[in-house]
Write a structure and sequence with these properties.
- This protein has a four-stranded antiparallel beta sheet.
- Strand 1 and strand 2 (103-117) form a beta hairpin.
- The protein has two domains: 76-184, no CATH class; 189-396, Orthogonal Bundle (MetI-like fold).
- The N and C termini lie far apart (81 Å).
- It has helices spanning 29-32, 40-48, 52-69, 71-74, 186-222, 224-239, 242-251, 259-289, 293-300, 305-313, 318-341, 353-357, 363-368, 374-396, and strands at 95-100, 103-117, 124-147, 151-160.
- Helices cover 51% and strands 14% of the residues.
- Helix 6 (224-239) packs across helix 8.
- It is built from 14 helices and four strands.
- With 402 residues, the protein is of the alpha+beta class.
């Protein structure tokens, strides 16, 4: 008996209600495509400012270079001004108030000295004279100078209110960091020494930058014979101990040269030795970049080799170069300080931190006047600040790194 096959009916899904248009207009395609893309400099800055030590080092470095830039204004006295009666005078603290008949009055001042003879050591000592008040003031009139060699001025940030017009004498003693063996103000000489020591680092690094980029780029871009010659020269220079090489080259400078010529001679010496590390870094980067697509495109587009190197290749790792240069400035400063300390670098009347530390070569002098080591503290502060800054720049040069 045949069975009747009936089709199975399924419930069809009810059609959905039409979607009502949104109350707010949908953004256009053009507005959705406006995506903010941060530049490389922005990415580096975002990561750099998270590095607290690097930010601190950057602030300290800027302050040090501001001191070098406004040295004449910040120094109370000329670096050669002296007072023979105050040799090895101790530091004087600044007081803000004085006691008068009408009460306490605001008067920035330092207290004078009284000279006494130690009956045991039979040497002269300075004792603070409470009755001698030496007023000091901000923007006081003092030794005339030309700011940056252009603007004639005679105002100093802080100085004694009394000035007799002789720039070579210190009539009113105000030694905030003590005096040296000739009665010269250590603070003023440190401020002037900041300009020489810090500028040698900048000038030396600038020359090393040019030599490192040019020779390292030549070695990595062309290779072959040029690469072999430059690399052998680098290996030869790096195989010689640095300090004996510095001493030998510095001793070769004629003693009859003027201080300015000696300054540039020491700068060139430090630059001729300091370019090798940067050249190695540049060579490695050029070897890896010369086969990249954007370099090949630049060549096929008709760019000259000079333009390909300086416009396309060097900017691609310029942040790493800046970090390397920042880390090399402390080496330049230490090298100048070491040479000047040994008497083979800058010589008086040029004032640098290394020249000032020559006063501290004698243990007896340091025992008598420990404040002569203040320039050494300045060297340590500058080197640490630059190292912190360089480390932060080196880490921030890779914005996508962790």
């Amino acid at each position: 008996m045949a069975t009747e096959v009936r089709p199975v009916t399924r419930d069809r899904k009810q059609p959905e209600a039409p979607i009502e248009p949104a109350s707010e207009p949908i953004e256009s395609q053009d507005s959705q495509s406006n995506i903010y893309v941060a530049s490389q400099g922005t990415l580096i800055w975002r990561k750099f400012r998270k590095h607290k030590l690097a930010m601190f080092g950057g602030v300290v470095t800027i302050l040090i270079y501001l001191v070098a830039l406004f040295a004449e204004f910040l120094a109370p006295f000329s670096p050669q001004a002296f007072a023979a009666n105050y040799t090895y005078a101790p530091p004087q603290p600044i007081g803000l108030f004085v006691q008068t008949e009408s009460g306490r009055e605001f008067l920035p001042h330092v207290k004078g000295y009284t000279v006494e003879i130690d009956s045991v050591a039979l040497r002269r000592t300075f004792v603070v004279d409470e009755s001698q008040i030496i007023p000091i003031s901000l923007f006081a009139k003092g030794t005339p100078y030309r700011l940056w060699g252009l603007i004639p001025m005679d105002r100093h940030l802080i100085a004694p209110t009394e000035f007799d017009g002789d720039p070579t004498r210190i009539v009113t003693p105000m030694y905030l960091m003590g005096a040296d063996r000739l009665g010269r103000d250590v603070l003023s000489r440190m401020i002037y020494g900041t300009r020489i020591s810090m500028s040698i680092g900048l000038v030396g690094v600038a020359v090393s930058f040019l030599l490192g980029i040019a020779l390292g780029g030549l070695s990595g871009y062309y290779g072959g014979t040029w690469d072999n010659i430059i690399q052998r020269v680098i290996e030869f220079l790096r195989s010689i101990p640095e300090i004996p090489l510095w001493m030998g080259l510095a001793a070769a400078l004629p003693s009859t040269w003027s201080p300015l010529r000696i300054y540039f001679g020491i700068t060139i010496i430090l630059s001729l030795i300091g370019w090798t590390g940067l050249a190695r870094v540049v060579r490695g980067r050029f070897l890896s970049l010369r086969t990249e697509d954007f370099v090949m495109s630049a060549r096929l587009d008709g760019n000259s080799e000079w333009r390909t190197i300086w416009v396309h290749m060097v900017p691609s790792f310029f942040s790493h170069i800046i970090a390397s240069l920042t880390l090399s400035i402390p080496g330049m400063i230490l090298a100048e300080t070491a040479l000047s300390f040994l008497g083979l670098g800058l010589r008086p009347p040029v004032v640098s931190w290394g020249v000032l530390l020559q006063e501290a070569q004698n243990i007896r002098s340091v025992a008598t006047a420990p404040w002569l080591l203040w320039p050494g503290l300045a060297v340590v502060t500058a080197v640490l600040a630059l190292n912190f800054l360089g480390d932060g720049l080196r880490d921030a040069a890779d914005p996508y790194g962790r």
